[in-house]
């Protein structure tokens, strides 16, 4: 629940693997009795654990041994079969469900205290009167400040049963005494659609950060709004989207594809094929669509891009996607933990698998981003390596390739600012957000008379704020930081972060996209296609 930084630099690792999964839709053909019958392999593992528990010389937590064993087994399968410990299950379930029960604030821990960045619009805290800049000191008399509390402890104290009440004790600058608020907990959305707004008079823009249970509903609401504003073309931004539920991706594709067009098909180890087709429900079948992807667009994101590309619908813009063509199914392990096990592969309508190889181990698999960077692929489309044996042709005669991600129709190189190590580090560590929060603390009311649209369109960040940011960083660093080469980019990040903390609801994207190379390319393409 701590403040989420937008447009973080492109970092691959095990973390992205745990975020890259799609809901399986296949059932095992074997009976439960056959699957779980006794055999010597299972007996061997059970005996070893029993020997350690009862006979080993020291006391050992056998639960931890089991966790290590499970992870060791999965590491020998594929990079996307993952174990979810029971302590992580609730968080993972909430993220994929798309909501949780809480008080509805965006916060981060500032000087050992909960500092409210923004109360979520129409949420419980906003209705009770909590404001940005408030410090939440206590919840029902329990202290919420000090070095010993982490974000997990804080969140657990603020969560509770739906409609239950919590008394918050709050410090607010300028108030002579502490304030108290009775907040009724409610369902708080974990938004998967970051922004939905008009880029031009007829070009809409929707950014999806993952495919959760609530994503289609959020997407459809945004699509309907933009159509009512005159959108006949749509930019669907899937950059950095690690995936999610297969069924949600299918529903979103269905909005763009004509009836009975193949969306994808899956194949399991027994050779069973399951095909998914578009229906008559699509509301944007006659509109032009542009799909924005990059090297961190994976899984369900690639399903959307691949289905539209293979059906000659729209234009894929950006850089080669991640390359994940495996389908996982979540399986309960009986103790509150679960495993997401790869149960099939999916194929785009032309029959291509976009799963990249993983036969050299997980480390090489996750390090491929750096190989792409070193090879120059992220800057030059000619450096993308393709396998002619994996060449496919769309109905309109366009050549596409399998074997490792979706190659875009229109290439856009990596922004040079994203190659700057200092800027990437500052984004990754949240310095922009912290700095902007402290700036707002000095005088939040100076923005009271500025509407969201006026701020997005007309507000200018002065050079003095960039220099103040440099001073802020230099007080916290042994080396001197300057932004000579990236002065304008830093201004844009500061303005976008200000917009996010003041207004939320996609304001960051509206500001940042004004200088975004890929968005600029889409606008150019849309104007050419009118």
TrEMBL record:
Keywords: Hydrolase, Membrane, Protease, Serine protease, Transmembrane, Transmembrane helix
SMART domains: PDZ, TSPc
Any matching Pfam family: Peptidase_S41
Residue ranges of coiled coil: none
InterPro entries: ClpP/crotonase-like_dom_sf (IPR029045), PDZ (IPR001478), PDZ_sf (IPR036034), Peptidase_S41A (IPR004447), Tail-specific_protease (IPR005151)
Family label: Belongs to the peptidase S41A family.
Protein name per its UniProtKB record: S41 family peptidase
Organism field: Tamlana crocina
